[in-house]
Amino acid sequence: MALDPKLLEILACPKDKGPLLYFADEDSLYNPRLRMRYRVTDDIPVMLIDEAEILDDAEDARLRTKADAEGIEPTWK
Q: What is the CATH number of the domain that holds 19?
């Protein structure tokens, strides 16, 4: 099950308050500016800075490429 579109319209990174990229098939929200990935567990975003994963260059590039290829837009602009 995907996150509610209304939730995605207001969801922001807790660290820089900016928009996120939502990868429904990977159960994650990604902040490409800070390279931080937040997991989604049981359709609930875990938006805790201490629990975010900091991604390396390769994983950042993979997610950016995937977002471009699949037309994944930021949660809001």
A: 2.20.25.10
